[in-house]
Design goal:
The complex is a heterodimer of chains A (516) and B (653). Chain A is mostly helical. Chain A contains 21 helices and five strands. In chain A, the strands form two sheets. In chain A, strands 4-3-5 form a three-stranded antiparallel beta sheet, with no helix packed on it. The chains are: A mainly alpha (516), B mainly alpha (653).
């Protein structure tokens, strides 16, 4: 036994440093909760989180210059911090920083968007008291950091068990974050519970799939799985069913139909800043992991699963687009749009090859900034009951606040894929990759669904500009410095990636290789 | 597929454009100046209200002057075409798209039309919109439109064209909806948006198909290799491009939005929905002439769309009583002539472009004339309530008359020189189809004469039928518009008179490097016979309209036979769209919503209700229950598993 203990795998600390730093900062955040006086906690937590994220980002960037095929894998090849992995980590951290700015916003309402003590019964005397006075929980910062750290591990996991652990590490904080809304607490708690139950359900699929794959390959790391495809004496059905179940677990996180059902409820119920975080970062993590599973672990199957995943992509695009048309709540509308976007991402992914991967990476970044900015805008339209997200309330907003409505219209046009926004380039890239990969039918459905999807966006634009504001039209709050910064970053990136996308496209092309 | 390899094998001479030098290397300024002006107009505050509209005019005039300079700069170049690549827009692997411009004879024609006519309409609009508090913003959108339209015609690849395409669509959408208060304006904007999206989808798919087949979307590569694509691919590609063209140009089956778009201010109708944007479809086909010329089936489809639309537009135009709508349907019909031209191919490409240029003058002239009439008549648009206006607005009357004579093709006005050759070319089509399309074009000429004369007579002649205060409306005191509006009218009227005569031959030669040389026509009947026939038909149509309407008309719609009723209802094309596209779409959406929110849930609840409980929970705010979500995930999971296994075992082929 003693020998076994001594045979710990070597750890390449420079490669793991960003993750370790984030986990350490999250733990430090927990300590801050315990030792720093209440009044100073918010500031300390915010600065700590942002500094940790920025430091992690710098480490990722520095690491990107040094990574080679030889030194990419560490911890007995359990994690593979390769070029693509570093890009995904970087994307998650950057989007995490921007979302953190939204999460840190405290000026829009007294105490911020989070409840002080989530455990207090909704509607009780205590609850009314805390709603009126107490400032929001600062535990959200370490929770978000844990989630981000988990995601960075998730996208570099080179073995199914590590991937599963990372999945749980980033999911659990997200469930909690969903429950912490200050307003409409019942809705928020319901969202969290739904997300938790269904998330656990999806994890079970993933775990079951993991077991079956292990049954076939006798190992859980991608290199062994890849090698076993042609060599294992076991029935290949084990592998196929295992892959299907793994995909279900991952497609759940990616919000692809028919595993999308949780998305609208959770996006609507969660605090908007958390929704923005989920829509941007979880998407990157889920697709990063899905790409790694398909490209690295199951590449040997010759992509025979493409038709099945293609049907899922088509279904996802159509369900997202068509249902977005009838939504009357902006958060739900964006939720369905996020579902449809998962479909477009799948088109890029299934395009296969370097082009498919690079177009997907580009799309993830472009969409992440866009969606964070859009949800950030939603936090600004408020009335006495908090955010006014019902569509009818936005009628005539263009007359009241032309700047706000102008920026939001721009974002909606980007969602609709109008040229000179990042939305156009991103869609063009994934559809181009789909065509190049011979998946013309997917592109056909992609173009069709994006036509349908343009309609709900434009309806919002029309509603804002072409209606007279009524007495109940809510006011647009002046955003604080944090939200302004987040919005500015989101809008700028959307514009720049629309006009001059080649640097990022070059980068995604260069990093599009996983190390097996 | 390696494009370079294919280039070497190409049977036809590869298309090569010279790099831009000198003045021509400033092409980007053509677009940048109106775009910057739009930005200034849209972002500055009220303090810019005083001079904003003049800035808008000046930026377009600048582009016109610059464009004219470049036009002359082209003359001495070998194939009269230059291109310039600014930067690489999308540089991924096989997917190479540049941000680049192309300036050749075809582009030059469009640049001069867009900026020239555009400038006159801008000047007119300073007067027309003088009392509108949103004038500065209006000019901002107007400049934005000009910039986008120039981008459309200046791009050196299809993606650039698509940028402009979306841009003009957006600007048009904004300008149609400009009159916020009116719900009909918003509805019209929506309709334009949907129909254009359908067309755009065709264009996008076409671009992707090009990329898949040729690995490039640049004009030079695509045109050099067009002949090497398989016949079916060319056909599909052409049909997709045609779908895009019909959407933007208001051709069958996507014609319904164009007349509704007249809800926008009149200068918008003149600039966007008559002179420039709606001709983008013609530009697309003429630009893609190597693709369309490569497949005869494709050409037949284009010709059929053109012929059908030109008749459709004439018939519906004859039954409308709204001055702008008559003009709108006449636009649909005239663009039908242009589609007929570009579909015929060969020398008729140039004929279509010449007709397009002439049409830009006389239609803008008449739209602005209609605006001038409305200006003097308290925004009345019903031609049944005009009459005898020639006494009160002499300049408008005379200029409108020039437009009227030009469009019906009375020599020596421009329509005669530009429409006639298209009719002749249609007759020259080999086989019985020559008769079919030739006769369609000929009948169209007669019908055009009828409805345009009806419009002219009812508006300017006959007894006064103005609204009065007694019948609950206002008393009319018609008056001539201010000089800032009439001067552009006079210029456009001069264009309507002389443009055709001056342009017919030189422009055809000018366009030779792009569209091929003019061809000898051998029509079914003698050239002279056709000319005489069409003149006789024109005079007959005009005479009939004069006889019927010189004494005015009833003030309200009269009961009519099936043909007129059908024409009043746009030949039931709207009803057709509703039945075939809208209703199934709505049903599909409803069904999906039902399944998504209630379907699985309903199943579970139904069962629960059967055993006597659970129905109370339906009152909850959220319709979704976790258990039904989980159930649908499970069902989906089982299906996915089954599909994976089925694919693996080869059950799905």
């Amino acid at each position: 036994m003693g020998e076994l203990v001594l045979n710990l795998p070597a750890l390449a600390y420079p490669a793991l440093a960003p993750m370790l730093l984030l986990f350490a900062a999250a733990c430090a955040g927990v300590l801050v909760e315990a030792f720093v006086p209440r009044g100073a906690r918010n500031a300390v937590q915010l600065v700590l989180s942002l500094l940790a994220l920025i430091a992690a980002l710098i480490m990722v960037v520095l690491r990107a210059g040094k990574v080679t095929a030889e030194n990419a894998q560490t911890a007995a090849a359990a994690v593979s911090i390769d070029q693509a992995g570093l890009f995904l980590q970087g994307a998650i951290i950057v989007l995490g920083i921007v979302s953190m700015l939204l999460i840190g916003e405290r000026t829009l309402e007294t105490g911020g968007p989070f409840v002080a003590q989530a455990a207090i019964t909704v509607g009780s005397e205590l609850d009314r008291k805390q709603a009126a006075k107490e400032s929001g929980a600062t535990e959200v910062y370490p929770l978000a950091l844990f989630a981000i750290a988990g995601m960075t591990l998730f996208v570099t996991a080179n073995d199914l068990l590590v991937m599963f652990v990372a999945l749980e590490v980033f999911s659990l904080p997200l469930y909690l974050l969903c429950a912490l809304a200050r307003r409409k607490r019942l809705l928020s708690q319901e969202a969290a519970l739904k997300y938790f139950l269904l998330g656990a359900y999806a994890s079970a699929f993933f775990l079951f799939g993991l077991a079956l794959v292990y049954g076939f390959a006798g190992a859980v790391d991608f290199r062994a799985i890849h090698a076993s495809v042609n060599n294992s004496p076991n029935n290949v059905l084990l592998l196929i069913v295992g892959l299907a179940m793994l995909s279900i677990g991952l497609l759940f996180k990616a919000a692809a139909a028919p595993f999308h059902v949780w998305t609208p409820d959770v996006y609507q119920g969660a605090p908007t800043a958390v929704t923005a975080f989920m829509a941007a970062c979880t998407k990157v993590a889920a697709f990063g992991a899905l790409a790694r599973v398909l490209y690295v672990g199951f590449d040997g199957l010759g992509w025979e699963f493409t038709p099945v995943l293609g049907v899922i992509a088509v279904l996802t695009m159509l369900v997202g687009a068509i249902l977005a048309v009838t939504q009357t709540d902006l958060k739900r509308l964006l939720a369905y749009s996020s579902i449809a976007n998962a479909g477009y991402l799948l088109v890029g992914l299934l395009g296969g090859g370097k082009e498919g991967l690079s177009s997907m990476l580009f799309y993830l970044v472009a969409y992440g900034f866009l969606v964070i900015a859009a949800f950030g805008m939603l936090t600004l339209v408020r009335d006495a009951d908090g955010e006014a997200t019902h569509l009818s309330r936005w009628a005539g907003l263009g007359k009241r606040s032309p700047l706000f409505a102008g920026v939001f219209s721009f974002l909606l046009l980007a969602f609709a894929g109008i040229p000179l926004t990042s939305g156009f380039v991103a869609k063009f890239a994934v559809f181009g990759a789909g065509i190049a990969g011979g998946q013309t039918w997917l592109v056909l459905f992609g173009v069709l669904s994006s036509i349908i999807l343009a309609f709900p966006y434009i309806r919002v634009v029309v509603l804002m500009w072409l209606n007279e504001p009524g007495e109940t039209t809510p006011s647009v709050s002046i955003p604080g410095a944090l939200t302004s910064t987040a919005l500015m970053i989101g809008v700028l990136v959307t514009l720049v990636l629309g006009v001059w996308p080649s640097p990022l496209l070059d980068l995604t092309t260069n990093v599009s290789n996983f190390i097996r | 597929m390696e494009p370079t390899l294919m280039l070497a094998d190409a049977a036809q001479a590869p298309v090569v454009f010279a790099p831009a030098t000198g003045l021509l290397s400033y092409m980007w300024l053509l677009i940048a100046v109106p775009a910057v002006s739009a930005l200034i107009l849209l972002t500055t505050g009220r303090w810019a209200d005083k001079w904003g509209h003049w800035l808008g005019c000046a930026s377009v005039l600048f582009s016109f002057v610059l464009g004219a300079g470049m036009f002359f700069g082209l003359r001495d170049l070998p194939n009269r075409a230059v291109q310039q690549e600014l930067y690489s827009f999308i540089p991924v692997g096989n997917l190479q798209v540049d941000f680049g411009f192309l300036f050749d004879p075809l582009t030059a024609c469009f640049v001069l039309l867009i900026t020239g006519v555009g400038f006159l309409i801008h000047v007119y609009a300073t007067g027309y919109m003088a009392h509108d508090e949103g004038r500065r913003r209006f000019f901002g959108y107007f400049n934005l439109f000009i910039a986008a339209m120039l981008l459309l015609v200046l791009g050196n690849n299809y993606v650039m064209l698509y940028f402009g395409w979306e841009g003009v669509g957006l600007a048009s959408y904004l300008l149609i909806s400009f009159w916020y208060g009116r719900p009909s304006a918003a509805t019209a904007g929506k309709k334009a948006f949907i129909m254009n999206r359908i067309g755009d989808a065709g264009l996008v798919l076409g671009i992707f198909l090009m990329f898949a087949q040729l690995g490039s979307v640049n004009y030079d590569v695509v045109f050099s290799n067009a002949g090497l694509m398989p016949t079916t691919t060319i056909l599909v590609l052409g049909l997709l491009l045609l779908l895009g063209a019909t959407g933007k140009s208001g051709q069958f089956p996507l014609q319904a939005w164009l007349p509704d778009a007249m809800e926008g201010p009149t200068p918008v109708s003149a600039l966007i929905h008559a002179a420039t944007m709606v001709t983008a479809g013609v530009y697309l086909i003429a630009r893609s002439n190597p693709i369309f010329s490569a497949n005869t089936t494709l050409q037949t489809v284009v010709v059929s769309v053109g012929a059908l639309t030109l008749l459709l537009g004439c018939i519906i135009g004859s039954a409308k009583d709204d001055i702008k709508r008559v003009l709108a349907w006449s636009t649909v019909s005239q663009i039908g002539y242009m589609f007929l031209g570009v579909g015929l191919g060969g020398g008729a490409y140039a004929l279509a472009i010449i007709h397009l240029l002439a049409h830009g003058f006389f239609k803008a002239n008449m739209f602005l004339g209609a605006g001038s009439v409305m200006h003097g008549m308290n925004d009345q648009v019903d031609i049944r309530r005009f009459g005898a206006l020639w006494k009160y607005m002499k300049i408008t009357w005379l200029t409108f008359m020039m437009g009227w004579l030009a469009i019906i093709g009375i020599p020596p006005l421009s329509g005669f020189f530009t429409k006639e050759p298209i009719i002749v070319a249609a007759f020259a089509r080999p086989g019985w189809t020559g008769w079919l399309y030739g006769l369609a074009a000929l009948i169209g000429a007669g019908l055009t004469a009828f409805y345009m004369t009806r419009l002219f007579i009812l508006t300017f002649h006959g007894p006064k039928r103005w609204t009065t205060a007694k019948e609950g409306s206002v008393d009319q005191h018609p008056h001539e518009s201010p000089p800032v509006m009439t001067i552009p009218l006079i210029f456009l009227a001069l264009g309507s008179i002389f443009a055709g005569m001056l342009m017919a031959t030189p422009v055809a030669q000018w366009l030779t490097p792009v569209l091929g040389p003019p061809t000898e026509e051998h029509p079914k009947m003698g050239h002279l016979t056709i000319t005489v026939l069409s003149l006789v038909l024109t005079v007959a149509g005009a005479g009939l309209a004069y006889a019927l309407f010189r004494k005015g008309t009833a003030l309200a719609p009269q009961p009519a036979g099936p043909v007129v009723t059908a024409a009043r209802n746009n030949l039931y094309t709207d009803a057709f769209n509703e039945a075939v596209f809208e209703k199934p779409g709505k049903w599909l959406t409803r069904a999906l919503v039902f399944v998504d929110n209630k379907g699985v849930d309903g199943l579970v609840n139904g069962l629960a209700a059967l055993v006597g409980g659970g129905s109370g929970r339906l009152r909850r705010l959220q319709t979704g229950f976790v258990r039904s979500y989980a159930l649908s995930m499970l069902l989906g999971g089982v299906l996915v598993l089954g599909a994976f296994v089925a694919v693996q075992l080869g059950w799905m082929g």
